[in-house]
Amino acid sequence: MADTSDLVLDVKNLKTVFFTNSGLFKAVDDVSFTVKRGETLAIVGESGCGKSVTALSLMRLVSDPPGRIVGGSIMLEGTDLLALDEAAMRKIRGNRISMIFQEPMTSLNPVIRIGDQIVEAVRLHRNLSTKEARNIAVEMLHLVRIPEPARRAREYPHQLSGGMRQRAMIAMALACRPALLIADEPTTALDVTIQAQILALILDLQKELGTGLVLITHDLGVVAQTAQRVIVMYAGRKVEEASVEALFAAPKHPYTRGLMASIPAVPAPGIAAQERLNEIPGTVPSLVRLPKGCAFAPRCKLAVKRCEAEYPPLADWGGGHLAACWRAADVAEVA
Amino acid sequence: MFAYLVRRLLLMLVTLIGISIVIFFLLRIVPGNIVDILFAAAGYVDPADKVDLEKQLGIDQPLVVQYLHWIGGLLHGDLGYSYVSEKPALQEILPRIPITARLAGLALLFSASIGIPLGVISAVKQGSRIDYALRVVSLSGLSLPSFWLGLLVLTASVAMFGQMPIFNPNPQSLGEAFATYCIPAMVVGFRSSALTMRITRSSMLEVLRQDYIRTARAKGASDAAVNYHHALKNAILPVITVIGIEAAFLIGGLIVTETVFNIPGVARFLVEAIRWRDYPIVQNLVMLIAVVVVSANFIVDMLYAVFDPRIRYTD
C-alpha cells in the first residue's frame, strides 16, 4: 500500500444488514477499500449487489430501521465516521463527504430555488452571510458550466433539464470542497450524449479540487474511462479488486469476466453482428438465503464442488489484484 | 395571469348567480311562509287580512318577480327588511358578522396550528407510540360531533367550576375573552384539526420517501430542517385544500356550536330566521356564506401558486 497519509477514505470490514420480514440480509458483507486524494475508485456490480448501500453507509444515511451498519470502520481523513454521534456526522455530511445521486429529476427539492438549495449546503457548514453564500452558489453553478448561473440560481428545478439538474447537484455536492465525493450512478438516468459531458465534468472538477471519488456504476465502459481502481461487488461482497488496467487485461473472477463479456461489441464492417448478446445465466441470489459457499457458484461455468461448500477468501494475485475465487487461476482460459 | 384572474372571477360570479337561484327557490319550496306561521300562532284570523299581509310583504307576487326584486336590491346594497324585526336586513346581519368571523378564524387557526405540527410529528415518528396516540386522538376528533363535544365542555365546566361560559360581547379580561371565543372555537376546530393532522401525516409520509429528502440529509441538514423546511413545504398543498374546504364546513359546525354556547352570531341567527321563514334574512345570509365559500376556494387556488412554483396560472 502507498503512503497512508494520502488516504482520504479507509473502509475496513464494513457490514451493513437489513432486518426485514423475510429475515435478516447482509447488503454489505465485510467490504474493505481505500480511496486516495484525487483518486477515482469505481464500484461495479449488478443491481442489488450492495453498491448503493455501501455508498449510503459511507454517508451513514442507511435508514434505520430497517438497515443498520453492524461492523467495520469508515475512516475519513483519520476520523472514524461510525464512532461519531449524529450531530457530529451532520457536520461532516455535505462538508467533508458528499454525494451525487442517480436521479437528477427527483433529487432536487422541487419547491426551493436551485440557488437556495446550494446556499443551504454552504451555510450549513460555513459561517457565511446569505449574500456571501449566494455568491458561492453562483460561482459553483458557473464552475459546473451552467450558462447564465446568476439567472439559473433563481430558477426552480422543473425549469432545468435533466443534465442541468445533475450539474446543479454536482455544484451542491462540491460547494464545500469535500475530501470525498460519492457519485451513485450519476449518469444512468441521462441521455448518452449528456452522460459523457457529466462524467467529464465530474473528472475535471475532481482533478481541480483534488477530491477523492467513489464512482458507483454498472457500466464497465464508464469504469474504463474514469477510474484508477475498481472493486467488483457480488451479493454484498467484494469479489475482485484491481487497477483498471489489470482488471481489463486479466479479470480473475468469473463474474467480472461475465460482466465484460456482456458488453455488446460494435461489429467490424463486413462482419455480421453476433446474433445474441452474451449474458450471465441465472439471477443474483436472494440475499436472505445465500448459499454457504461462493454466492456466484450457481451461475458459474467454472464452479466445482469446493465452490459450493466453502466461500473463497480474497487472495492477492500480484500488484494488489485481489480476487475471491477458488478457480481464479483458470479464469483466463475460459472465454 | 391577468386573463386567468378575470376568467376566474367571472366564473365565481356565475357560480354565485347559480347559488342565488337555488337558495331562492329551495326556500320557497319549504312549506309555509311567515304569514302562515303568524296566523297559525294567532288561531283563526280573517283570510282577507292574510292576503293583505302577503301583499304587504310582496310574497304574493310571482316567484320570478320576487327573485328579480331581491337580486336588484342586492346589487344596490338593499337587502330588504327582516319580516320578524322589521329592521333592515343589513342592520340585523352586519353586527353579527364579526362574532362569527372571530369564531371561525380562531377555529381555523386552532386547526392549522395544532393539526399541522402534530401531523408532521406523527409522520416523522411513524409507527411509534406517539404516532398511535395522535392517531387515536385524531380519530376521536373526526368521530365526535361538535355539538356533543360542546355539551360535554359545558357540562364539565359546570361540574368543575360551578358555572359555564356565558357569551360576553365586551370581554373585560383575557380570561373572559378566552371563555367567550376560544372555548367554542376549539370545540368547532377540534374536528378540523383532526382532519388537518391526518392529511398532513399522510402527505408528509409520501414526501419523506422522496429522493430530495435524502439529498437534504446528505447535505448535513438537521432533522428539523429536513422535516419542516424540505418536507413540509412539499407536503402542504393537500393540507391547504383541506383547510379551505374546512373553512366552508366550519359554518355548518358553527350553526350548532353557536346554538349550544348561546352565541349571537350569524350562524345561530340563520337557524332562527329559517324557523320564521324570514326570507330576506335567510337568503341574504346563505348568499353571504356562499360568497365566503367561493372566496375560500379562490384563495386556496391562489395559495397553490404561492407554495408550489410548478403551478402557474397562465392564460
Q: Can you describe what's shown?
A:
The complex is a heterodimer of chains A (about 325) and B (about 325). Chain A has 13 helices and 12 strands. Chain A is of the alpha/beta class and about 325 residues long. Chain A has 2 domains: about 5-225, 3-Layer(aba) Sandwich (Rossmann fold); about 255-265 and about 275-330, no CATH class. In chain A, the strands form 2 sheets. Chain A has an 8-stranded mixed beta sheet with strand order 6-7-8-3-9-10-12-11, sandwiched between helices. By secondary structure, chain B is an all-alpha fold. Chain B folds into 2 domains: about 1-80, no CATH class; about 95-305, MetI-like fold (Orthogonal Bundle), CATH 1.10.3720.10. Helices cover about 80% and strands about 0% of the residues of chain B. In chain B, α6 runs antiparallel to α11, α9 (about 175-210) crosses α11 and α10 crosses α11 (about 225-260). Chain B is globular, with a radius of gyration of 24 Å. The relative contact order of chain B is 0.14. The chains are: A alpha/beta (about 325), B mainly alpha (about 325).
Explain the layout of strands and helices.
The complex is a heterodimer of chains A (335) and B (315).
Chain A: E1 7-20, E2 23-36, E3 40-44, H1 51-59, E4 67-76, E5 79-80, H2 86-92, E6 97-100, H3 104-107, H4 114-125, H5 130-143, H6 149-153, H7 162-174, E7 180-184, H8 192-209, E8 212-217, H9 220-226, E9 229-234, E10 237-243, H10 244-249, H11 254-261, H12 305-309, E11 315-316, E12 322-323, H13 328-331
Parallel strand pairs in A: 3-8, 3-9, 6-7, 7-8
Antiparallel strand pairs in A: 1-2, 1-4, 4-5, 9-10, 10-12, 11-12
Helix pairs in contact in A: 4-5, 4-7, 5-7, 7-8
Chain B: H1 2-29, H2 34-42, H3 47-57, H4 63-75, H5 89-93, H6 97-124, H7 129-143, H8 146-161, H9 174-208, H10 211-219, H11 223-260, H12 266-275, H13 279-307
